[in-house]
Amino acid sequence: MSQLSTKHLLGIKQLTEQDIRTILSTAAKFKEVINRPIKKVPTLRDITIANLFFENSTRTRVSFELAQKRLSADVINFSSSSSSVKKGETLLDTVNNILAMKVDMVVMRHPSPGAPHFLAKHIDANIINAGDGTHEHPTQALLDAFSMQEKLGDLAGKKVLIAGDIMHSRVALSNIFCLRKLGAEITLCGPPTLIPQGIESLGVRIEYNIEKALAWCDVANILRIQLERQNTKYFPSLREYALTFGVNKKRVESLHKEIVIMHPGPINRGVEITSDVADSKHSIILDQVENGVAVRMAALFLLANKGIEN
After folding, report:
1. Measured between alpha carbons, how far is 52 from 49 in angstroms, rounded to an integer?
2. Of 167, 170, 212, whose CA–CA distance to 187 is shortest?
3. 138-288 has CATH 3.40.50.1370 classification
4. What is the pTM of this model?
5. pLDDT by residue (tens digit) across 57-114?
6. Which three-class secondary structure state does DSSP give residue 136?
7. 220 touches 277 (CB < 8 A)
8. Which residue, among 270, 225, 226, 223, has the nearest Cα to 248 in the 3D structure?
9. How far apart are CA 175 and CA 139, in angstroms?
10. Which helix (H) or strand (E) holds 187?
11. Distances in whole angstroms, Cα of residue 172 to Cα of each of 27, 260, 286, 306
12. Burial (Cβ within 10 Å: 0-12, 13-18, ≥19) of residue 286
């Protein structure tokens, strides 16, 4: 049986290239499962998984929960908005209480970068990071890579544009780590105020002209403008952003070549991308959603069956 080199999925940075390829090949098998008439397998029926979401999320939480139920795991859903966290309970207290219920795995989203890494040092359960602050979102990067691979084959040498709010995006960082390990070339595009200083050290190019960036790429992964994380003004207005950096039908049609359009969601339609592009034949946004379940099934399965200690 294939194994991962790690007990947890805390970030793409901690995974080897072989780990990534193992998750993606396992996801391909699970995608076949979820497209069968009977979509459930008994693989994790003796495993209890706690979903700890200290930050609002619908898409990721539902995707994980569906993956867990497809694998026949027992699922506990925990939301900080209705918990003792509001009464001052610490993260470690909360998790210890849940572990006292004999939980085997924890899927956690938290607004503080490094929160899953902190947990991994203190508890025995397998931890999957479902997003920590503006740091990493490993399963999103894996499902993005899986979706690109389905469309384009091996990603070595493929040109991937990541455009939008790079500064506040955990998806961008995880995608950079993942795609670089798979041999892709990466260009980042967005306002200079939304591109972190020194990010070129991760082996990426910077381009401030969206037309040039689109003309260069095979795949454009468009990121949401995360206004809820922005505590200062990074550009004059949303209208100005859409005019300068938005991916619209005119820009895509002027390329005279096929490119793949992606977006991790939720979409600000008419800001970073227009509806006629998001819903076009170029778009694999809905494939990303479907593939998210298969990739998360693969990650849960591989961690639960890992059998090595570290």
Report:
1. 10
2. 212
3. yes
4. 0.93
5. 889 999 999 999 999 999 999 876 555 455 456 777 877 887 788 899 999 999 889 9
6. strand
7. no
8. 270
9. 10
10. strand 185-189
11. 21, 17, 19, 28
12. exposed
Do the beta carbons of residue 258 and residue 283 sit within 8 Å? no
CA 5, CA 306: separation in Å to the nearest integer? 9
Neighbour tally for 40: CB within 10 Å: 13
- Say how many CA atoms lie within 13 Å of 144 toward its Cβ: 31
| Fold agreement between 12-136+292-304 and 138-288 | yes
Phi-psi region of 57 (alpha: psi -120 to 50; beta: other; left: phi over 0): beta
Tokens of 245: 């950096």
User: Tokens 């034949």 sit at which residue?
Assistant: 281
End-to-end CA distance of the chain: 18
| Active site positions, annotated | 59-60, 87, 109, 137
Length of the chain in terms of residues written: 310
pLDDT at 157: 98
Tokens (6 digits) for 149:
């691979």
Torsions phi, psi for 183 (to 5 deg): 90, 10
Residue 81 phi/psi, 5° resolution? Answer: -65, -25
CATH fold label, 12-136+292-304: Rossmann fold (3.40.50)
Query: Domain locations in the chain?
Result: 12-136+292-304, 138-288
- Give residue 101's pLDDT: 85
